[in-house]
Specification:
mainly alpha, 4 helices
Length: about 100
């Protein structure tokens, strides 16, 4: 394994362990909570922790935000790997930049 993880795999993984479409509002509330925790960790400048530390860190809070975002996408049957290129095409028209979005990367 090369260490890379696809969005499709993450969605599938999350769906296999935590998929309750009737709880979509609960997932959203967790996303909002985790976003607040991410903001706190960023404000405190909490970087990855040393072995044995128990505080929440930016990297861990980012994963929580991604987790609940993908859980919500699963509730709606949204394939994020299909959405991202379409949304990036719109964004590139609105906000052109030097780095093009590339598929299969």
């Amino acid at each position: 394994m090369d260490g890379r993880i696809s969005i499709a795999y993450l969605q599938s993984y999350i769906k296999s362990k935590d998929h309750c479409p009737e709880q979509v509002l609960g997932y959203f509330l967790k996303l909002a909570e985790e976003t607040g925790e991410l903001a706190r960790a960023m404000h405190k400048g909490l970087r990855p922790k040393a072995p044995g530390e128990t505080r929440d860190t930016v990297d861990e809070e980012l994963w929580d935000v991604i987790y609940y975002t993908l859980a919500i996408a699963n509730c709606y049957g949204i394939d994020m790997e299909a959405v991202i290129p379409r949304k990036e095409a719109l964004n590139n028209v609105r906000y052109p930049g030097p780095a093009p979005f590339e598929l299969d990367r």
